[in-house]
Amino acid sequence: MGTWGVKAFEDDTAMEIYDEFCNSEQSLQELEEGFDTVLSQTYNMDDLLMEGFEEPTKALVYAEIIAALNGNPSDKFPDEEYHEDMELPMINFENLKSDLKDELKIKAIETINKIQDDDQMHLTVLWVESESLDEWKNNLQDLKERLK
To answer: Which of 49, 54, 60, 144 has the greatest number of C-beta atoms within 10 Å?
Structure first.
């Protein structure tokens, strides 16, 4: 795992997902689809190893984007310098914020709950097996608070 911390933006895969979102059409529908994928999936460590890592990682990045839209970005949220260095367009917060509904925030929180509790999800298993499980869970709780 190319991870150097418990927060969403302290992981190589998460940063790639963020970059892809910045280069996309940046729609709330795209964010919601990321949550829906995790919520509808039944994870199994034997069959869905990569999906059980990439899909929840994407959902956590998307939840962080929603938290930033909500005015509560992570202290690790990519800044303007990151965008310049990576030659990425900035997220159009004004455009996305105008259509942000409470239902999407609630869906993001439900998704985080599933990620935290699903013992067959590869991402969760990796954290359970790490020495940073409590710190990771505290970070997820903080993210849920920033979504409210």
So the answer is: 60
pTM (2 decimals)?
0.95
- Maximum distance among all Cα pairs of the chain, rounded to whole angstroms: 42
Instruction: Return d(Cα 90, Cα 139) in angstroms, integer.
Output: 25
30-89 pLDDT, tens digit per residue, is 999 999 999 999 999 887 788 999 999 999 999 999 999 999 999 999 999 999 999 999
| Cβ contact 60:114 at 8 Å | no
With H, G, I as helix, E, B as strand and everything else as coil, classify residue 47: coil
| Count of the separate structural domains present in the chain | 1
Q: Is residue 7 part of a domain?
A: no
Q: What is the DSSP letter of 90?
A: P
Nearest Cα to Cα of residue 121 among 35, 51, 61: 51
The reply to whether 2 falls in a domain is no
Count the neighbouring beta carbons within 10 Å of the beta carbon of residue 145: 11
Give residue 93's domain range.
16-147
Determine, yes or no, domain membership for 23. Answer: yes
Q: Is residue 11 part of a domain?
A: no
